[in-house]
Structures are given as structure tokens and as C-alpha cells.
Target: Rieske 2Fe-2S domain-containing protein
Amino acid sequence: MAKYGQNADAIAALVREAEVHRDVYVDPEIFELEMEHLFPNSWIYVGHASQLGKPGDFITANIGRQPVLASRHTDGSIHVFYNRCPHKGVKIASEPCGNTGKFFRCPYHAWSFKTDGSLLAIPLKKGYEGTGFGDTQANEGLSKVRNVVIYRDFIFARLSDDGVSFEDYFGESLSTIDNMVDRSPEGKLAVQATPIRYMHTCNWKMLVENQTDTCHPMVAHESSAGTAVKVWKREQGDSTETPMAVQLYGPFMSPYEFYEQSGIRIWPNGHGHTGVANSIHSNYSDIEGYLGQMVAAYGEERAHEILGEVRHNTVYFPNIMVKGAVQILRNFIPIAVDRTLVESWVYRLVGAPDKLYERALMYNRFINAPTSIVGHDDLEMYERAQEGLKSNGNQWVNLRRLYENHEEQDVTAVINGTSERQMRNQFHAWSKFMTMDMDKRVEAAE
Model:
């Protein structure tokens, strides 16, 4: 029997001001409600326009349980559809990406559709004459996702017909995407490689929370990043140049004081970022020629302003993280209550030196890959948490660090860099977008 159903009050009660109930991580019913409510009510990242470089290019994705398909049409426009044939429901495309040519063709009965989704042809079409087919939804072709926004080539979609507009949903948080794109002298990013993909045996929200958890790096990563730093100090001899690998690993061992002073900025609707005043990306060595390109493109003042913004991790609620300083986006895709597929994408700064792309690729492999020495530390913590939360000793997760009574919700603020307020901010948004349409559905059922 359903424990929560469509009961908005019961769902909201799982989130207190500074605690969340373990069911948000371990209850399969809550997970299915997230798929039904949270993800359709939120703006979800689908892909990047550079993946659709020419007509016929397509990518596939999922928004909650809903498979979607994005394609580039012959006129250059981008369209997002539900990935199912209007005939028998067969998925039109099962590959992550590809080029379909001039049309999509269903592999079951050969119904075909233009790359804007409109119906192109049906075999034995005479069989539909006089049947009223022209008045059916199938005659309209692939069902379109109506709420789609392409912001600086990042494609976002919201499945729900009602909800918060794109502008109101993201607000000032889009400044992180702006900064990442502006780091290109041409103001453009490009996807040129497939992402690193791997499965984590934990709830998707654990990975999202970890992106703004600054009290774990010096503890969880001591044996990996800490060891790498110790080995370099022992072996460096007279060398005055720090290898790129050590530059990437070293900051993970920064003390609590560093993270406290770096700060966290929170925004409405669950978004926020670490690294306001400083970050682990602040002290990378300069890339020859890059600053000159940026000054030529933007002018001296603007170039230094762009490059001086070195935010660490920006969480875009509900499930992506953007690391603008090294052009990485991580997509935490929910598969089951205790399974999360991670996609870690790297973008090239168009027009910038190759060394910057090399550094981003190296960071992705050193830190985010399943073969990295750092990523395993986090995975072990997630798995231990997923197991530990089954314990009946305490059914609440404590998020009280630097909690202030009666914190304002849906505000913009800069706070202590070791605060758990961004996690509280995320769960306030979780409750909001989980329940915003539940009352309407209950009323409709009655």
C-alpha cells in the first residue's frame, strides 16, 4: 500500500528546517514520485546545441521516466520531442546520438517523420482512409515537448505545462553558464568528445549535495589526493614547476579555513555555488597566449573580470553541476532509488588554446572518472550512506551546520563556505517542486 501517494502534506513533512527524513534517499515510492512530479515540474538539462551541428543530428535523453529526443531540423531550428512513435509507442531513437538524415523512421512499422517531428509518410496509407485518422493525435507526428529554452546553446526543457518560467526558475544563477561561455574568446562552447559515463549505487541526491559539501574533501580524499601531494613534495627536488596533475589534486587538501573564506552563494529554487571569493581552481598556472586572446576579444577590464570569476561547483537544481573554470558539466541521472548514472561532459572553449581543453579533459579523468583516484573516495561514502540510512537508530539526516533560525527561503545570499545552507536550500526546492501540482491532481481525481 502506498505510504505517501499524492499527499502533499506528507511529502512536505519529510523536509524540516534543518533535517530531512531518510525516506527521501531510500524509499522507492518517493523515488517514483520524484519521477512523476519533481522532474516534470523542473527545468531539466537535455543537451548542448553543438551536439546538433548539422541537420539530421539528434541526441536522446530522459526527463524523469520520460524518454525525449532532440534534433536539428533542415532550417537550423532545434526541436525536442517525446521519444516514441505515435503508432505503437516504439522508441524512435535508442542511441545516445547520431544523424538520421532527412527523416526519422520507426523501426517497427516504418512510419516516418521529418526532423521537426511532423508526420512524413505511413506505409499503406489507404488503410487509414475513412477511419478518422486525420483527427487523431497520431496524425500530428511526434509529440513535442512544449516548454523548451536554449540558453547560450544549453538546451533545457520542462515537461509540465504549468510551472515556473525558465527566467524565474534560474534567475541570477545563469551567471555561471555565462561565465563559462564567456571564457571562450569567441563566446562559444563545443562538445567534441563523449562524456565519461558510470553508475553509482546510491541515490542521486547524495551526489548533488556533495557538490557543495566543503567539509569532506580534506577528510575523504586524504588517502588519495593527500598521498599524491605528499609524493610530489618528496620527489620534486629542485623543480619549480608544479605538474598539472598536482595542481588539480592539491587543492582538495585545503584546510577548513580556506573553504570557510571561499564562501557559498545560494539562489532561489535550489541553485547555488561554492567558491565565491576564492576556489580550488584559483591558482592554476597561466596558459600562454590565452589572456592576450581574451583581452583582444573583450577588452582589458572585461577579460580580467571574466577570468577572475573562478567558481568551484555550481548546482543547478535538481540534478546538474557546472564547473565553469574548467568547462565541465556533470549530469546526475536517476535510474532507481539506489542507482544513479553519472555523465561528465567536457566543453571546448572555441578559439582558446588547446592546453585549456587538455587541462579540462585531464581534470575530468583525474577527478571524475571511475578510474580516478579521487572519485572512488566519494563513491565509498555514498554507498556507506545508502546502507547506513537503513538503520532504524535515527530516521533523520542532520543538516544543521551554521543553521540560523527561521532562514528566509528563495533568497540570494552569500554565506560561510562550510555552511550546509545550500543543502537546506536544495531540499526546500525539492519539497516545492515535488508538491506544486499534487493538489491539482487530487482535485481532478475527485
Summary: The first helix runs from residue 8 to 12. The CA atoms of residues 232 and 243 lie 9 Å apart. The mean pLDDT is 93. The radius of gyration is 23 Å.
